[in-house]
C-alpha cells in the first residue's frame, strides 16, 4: 500500500464507547475490550490485517479479517481512512452482526493523491494497467474485462488476497504447461505465433516499438 502510511505501523489507537474499548493497530489488528467487572467480560480480536478495500482506483479502507469466531463465521472489521487533523479512531459501529466499521482520521490521507493505487505499483504492473487502459479505450475489452484485469493486478501486487480457487487454478496452470504430444505443442505454438502477429499489428498501429527476441 501507500508507503507514507507505514508510519502508522507499530502504533495503536483507542476509542471508548459505553463499556467497550476498541483498539486499532494499523497493519496488525483490531481488538475490543469490555470494561466491566463481569466475570466473563469479553475481550477479543475483531480482525487481523488482511487486505485493502479499493474503489475507483483509490485505497478507501483496510480490511481486518479472521478475528474471533462469531457463531458460524469470523469477526471482521473495515477501517475507513478519512482526512483529519490528528491520528485518531473517531467512530465505531457494527452495521451487521460481527462485521464492524471503524473510522480512522489521519492527516496522512488529506492530500488528494495520497491514496492513489497506481503510484504504489511496480513498473511492470503499471505497464499492465496502462495496456488495460489502452485496450478499454480501443474497445477491445469491456468495462467488466477491464475491472477483472485491475483485480488481477491488485492481487499480484498483494493489495488484495486472491481467493482459494484462484490459488488452485494458478497451481494447475503451472502443471498444465507441459504438452502431452508434439502435435499439441505445435498447435499451441501456432496459436501463440498468430496471437503475437495480431499484437504486433496492434502495437504498430499505435506507434509502439516492439522488442522481440529469438526465443519468442
Can you describe this structure?
By secondary structure, the protein is an alpha+beta fold. Among the domains are: 3-106, Mannose-6-phosphate receptor binding domain (Cation-dependent Mannose-6-phosphate Receptor, Chain A, Distorted Sandwich), CATH 2.70.130; 121-161, no CATH class. 30% of the residues lie in helices and 31% in strands. The strands form 2 sheets. It has an 8-stranded mixed sheet with strand order 1-2-3-4-5-8-10-9, with no helix packed on it. A two-stranded antiparallel ribbon has the order 6-7. Strand 4 (43-55) and strand 5 form a beta hairpin. It is elongated, with a radius of gyration of 23 Å. The chain starts with 12 loop residues before the first strand and ends in an 11-residue tail after the last helix. Keywords: Disulfide bond, Glycoprotein, Golgi apparatus, Secreted, Signal, Transferase. Residues 117-216 form the DMAP1-binding domain. InterPro entries: DMAP1-bd, Gtb1-like, Man6P_isomerase_rcpt-bd_dom_sf, MRH_dom, OS9-like_dom. It holds the Pfam family PRKCSH.
Amino acid at each position: 500500500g501507500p508507503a507514507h502510511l507505514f508510519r502508522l505501523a507499530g502504533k495503536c489507537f483507542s476509542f471508548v464507547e459505553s463499556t467497550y474499548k476498541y483498539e486499532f493497530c494499523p497493519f496488525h489488528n483490531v481488538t475490543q475490550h469490555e470494561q466491566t467487572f463481569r466475570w466473563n467480560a469479553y475481550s477479543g480480536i475483531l480482525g487481523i490485517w488482511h487486505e485493502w478495500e479499493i474503489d475507483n482506483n483509490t485505497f478507501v479502507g483496510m480490511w481486518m479479517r479472521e478475528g474471533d469466531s462469531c457463531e458460524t463465521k469470523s469477526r471482521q472489521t473495515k477501517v475507513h481512512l478519512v482526512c483529519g487533523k490528528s491520528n485518531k479512531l473517531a467512530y465505531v459501529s457494527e452495521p451487521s452482526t460481527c462485521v464492524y466499521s471503524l473510522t480512522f482520521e489521519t492527516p496522512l490521507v488529506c492530500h488528494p493523491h495520497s491514496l492513489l493505487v497506481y503510484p504504489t505499483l511496480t513498473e511492470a504492473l503499471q505497464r499492465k494497467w496502462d495496456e488495460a487502459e489502452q485496450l478499454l479505450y480501443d474497445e477491445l475489452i469491456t468495462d467488466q474485462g477491464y475491472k477483472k484485469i485491475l483485480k488481477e493486478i491488485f492481487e499480484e501486487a498483494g493489495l488484495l488476497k486472491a481467493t482459494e480457487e484462484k490459488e488452485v487454478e494458478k497451481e494447475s496452470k503451472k502443471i498444465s504447461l507441459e504438452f502431452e504430444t508434439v502435435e499439441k505443442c505445435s498447435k499451441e505454438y501456432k496459436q501463440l505465433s498468430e496471437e503475437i502477429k495480431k499484437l504486433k499489428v496492434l502495437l504498430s498501429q499505435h506507434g509502439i516499438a516492439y522488442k522481440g527476441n529469438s526465443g519468442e
